[in-house]
Write a structure and sequence with these properties.
131 residues; alpha/beta; UDP N-Acetylglucosamine Acyltransferase, domain 1; 2 domains; five-stranded mixed β-sheet; 2 helices; globular
Length: 131
């Protein structure tokens, strides 16, 4: 096995289920989709969304401000202002989920769950029309 170097992950980064992040640098405010693969010495600049299943090959740099897809990863379009803002919000949502899981916050402090469904063992997101 090659010693490629450390994996460095910045702030407000969400790594989707099943993603592989190996020996690379991920700057702040990045959303890595499910089952994406980031290989040795690639660099992901800030404010990037990597689509599910995307392959970022070794040594590739993904420039800030784009949505990347494919195998190998290619910029498909610039991110909207709304998408850029959502990257940080996704990371904050996972922090809220983890605090409830660890018992640091109650379900009432977490806007993503309906208390009755949570107590019944149904962990479905709260329906926004029933607030």
């Amino acid at each position: 096995m090659n010693q490629t170097g450390p994996t460095i992950i910045g702030n407000d980064v969400t790594i989707g289920h099943g993603a592989v992040v190996h020996g690379c640098t991920v700057h702040d405010s990045v959303l890595i989709g499910m089952n994406a693969t980031l290989l040795d010495k690639c660099v992901i600049e800030s404010e990037v969304i990597i689509a599910a299943g995307t392959l970022v090959p070794p040594g590739k740099t993904l420039a800030s401000g784009y949505l990347y897809m494919g195998s190998p990863a290619k910029a498909v379009r610039p991110l909207s202002d709304e998408e850029r803002a959502s990257i940080t919000q996704y990371a904050q949502n996972y922090i809220k989920y983890s605090r409830v899981y660890r018992g640091e916050h109650s379900i009432e402090e977490n806007p993503f769950y309906n208390r009755q469904e949570f107590n019944a063992g149904k962990h479905e997101p709260k329906d926004p029309s029933h607030t």
